[in-house]
Write a structure and sequence with these properties.
38% of the residues lie in helices and 13% in strands. It is an alpha/beta fold. It has a five-stranded parallel sheet with strand order 3-2-1-8-9, with helices on both faces. A three-stranded antiparallel sheet has the order 7-6-10. β2, α2 and β3 form a beta-alpha-beta unit. The longest helix has 22 residues. The radius of gyration is 20 Å and the shape is globular. It starts with a strand and ends in a 7-residue tail after the last helix. Bound molecules: iron/sulfur cluster. Iron/sulfur cluster binds next to α4.
């Protein structure tokens, strides 16, 4: 049985970019065979520019894989046999019921379908993993830092083993930023879909002020998703359309949100979300 190959799961944010550059300099070993970036096609332009730059610094290839545009998939409505509409793709929206109760959708599918699945598909191909293989053929490096240990999860595939080199090195996010600076590299962006409800207020502010076109894209996406789901409420609707979806935890339309504070409620909800995130999304 050949030795497992090492692959980096590249989110293209601060931590996984630092990890890839550390590997390139031989500060973490062995040298990975490749990095894989699972593209939702909805990252901000700054992330794609960063990725273009990053792959030129690395001695191993970066494969960009995709399951399509996540925003399009989440706006695509399907119909059950009894005429109820639903969407197979769910983003971690915050929700407001008709009686004003705030919540969040119970289950999101975006990370699994648009990050993990395309990533595993490429990893299988690179590692020549056989159908039903139970022995480890891939060591998957994940860019989770010490301040995000709650995101660590074992691989759901028997043929893949997760490794968290930044945690082995006891590096936190600010250590990554310091390492980048010390080595003369530019500051990486935060990678995530432009409309991701996981954004803290500071990221919403940054997007609004530094990438207004991307912020506008998030506003338009929120309006479109609310329009699609509002129509369903007037007809027979499935359960996940019972409330109005919002991108911001305050359940206020994005273009009217006061981003100056972080509320306790939002922090609690985000803590729950982060625990599910497995470090695949850079939020
Ligand atoms: S960044 Fe957010 S919206 Fe995009 S796939 Fe990850 S959790 Fe879903």
């Amino acid at each position: 049985m050949p030795d497992p190959i090492h692959l980096i799961s590249l989110g293209a944010g601060v931590q996984s970019s630092t990890l890839a550059l550390m590997a390139a300099k031989g500060e973490v070993g062995p040298m990975p065979k490749a990095a894989i970036f699972a593209d939702t096609q909805d990252e901000a332009a700054s992330v794609y520019h960063w990725l273009d730059w990053l792959e030129k610094q690395l001695p191993f290839p970066v494969y960009r894989v995709t399951a399509g545009r996540l925003s399009d998939a989440s706006l695509k409505m399907r119909v059950t046999k009894d005429g109820r509409k639903f969407s197979r793709t769910n983003i971690p929206f915050f929700t407001k019921s008709a009686t004003g109760e705030l919540g969040k959708i119970p289950h999101r599918s975006c990370t699994s379908d648009f990050k993990l699945k395309p990533l595993f598909k490429k990893a299988r191909e690179l590692g020549q993993i056989k159908r039903g293989q139970k022995t480890v053929g891939i060591i998957q490096w994940i860019g989770i830092s010490l301040d995000e240990v709650q995101r660590m999860k074992h691989s759901r595939e028997k043929w893949a083993e997760n490794r968290w080199p930044l945690i082995e090195l006891e590096m936190r996010r600010h250590d990554c930023l310091q390492w980048m600076e010390k080595n003369g590299y530019p500051k990486p962006p935060r990678s995530a879909c432009v409309y991701c409800p996981f954004h803290h207020n500071s990221e919403w502010r940054r997007l609004r002020d530094e990438e207004p076109e991307e912020f506008e894209r998030a506003i338009q996406f929120e309006r479109a998703i609310q329009f699609e789901r509002a129509i369903q409420k007037n007809k027979a609707s499935s359960e996940n359309f019972a409330s109005t979806p919002f991108l911001h935890r305050s359940c206020v339309p994005l273009d009217q949100v006061d981003f100056s504070t972080d509320t306790e409620r939002g922090q609690t909800l985000l803590a729950g979300f982060n625990a599910e995130c497995e470090g695949m999304c850079g939020v």
